[in-house]
Write a structure and sequence with these properties.
Largest sheet: 3 strands, antiparallel
Shape: globular
Strand content: 35-45%
Structural class: alpha+beta
Helix content: 25-40%
Length: 142
């Protein structure tokens, strides 16, 4: 089993500096003044993991992908611990001649097989759903 080591050091108030296993610093702030909150980072981690998979799979299937944006919408429990209960990932994929079937396949493979963050959250009871739209032209802004 692979081991990862990270650290989180208190700075002031509700602000912390995280050092990832890669050595990169991440500003964390429960007040959201100096950085993202811990739960926001969980959401961004899921979006980053799934987006990486989708881009990689689409490129390997020779799709002419120019841009991918993952828009996440999440609901949290109303009681403590305020865990995520539902997360929806909406992918906006931009490129030329992108096959809908390939995007659907890439998202499914990410969700079911490759995205460790997704699998961990699902195994913890989070309901994760996905959909997508394909746009043409430069950028995923449509």
């Amino acid at each position: 089993m692979a081991e990862s080591k990270a650290s989180v050091t208190w700075q002031e108030n509700k602000a912390f500096m995280g050092v990832a296993p890669s050595g990169h610093n991440v500003q964390i702030d429960a007040d959201k003044e100096k950085g993202a909150s811990p739960m926001e980072l969980v959401l961004l981690g899921l979006g980053g993991c799934a987006s990486y998979d989708v881009v990689s799979i689409l490129q390997k299937s020779r799709q002419q992908v120019q841009d991918v944006r993952c828009e996440l919408t999440a609901q949290r429990a109303e009681t403590i611990p305020a865990v995520y209960t539902d997360i929806h990932l909406h992918f906006v994929v931009s490129g030329q001649d992108i096959a809908e079937k390939q995007v659907e396949k890439a998202i499914k493979l990410s969700a079911d097989k490759y995205c460790s963050a997704s699998r961990m959250l699902v195994d913890g009871g989070v309901n994760i759903t996905h959909d997508f739209v394909i746009t043409t032209g430069e950028g995923a802004d449509g």
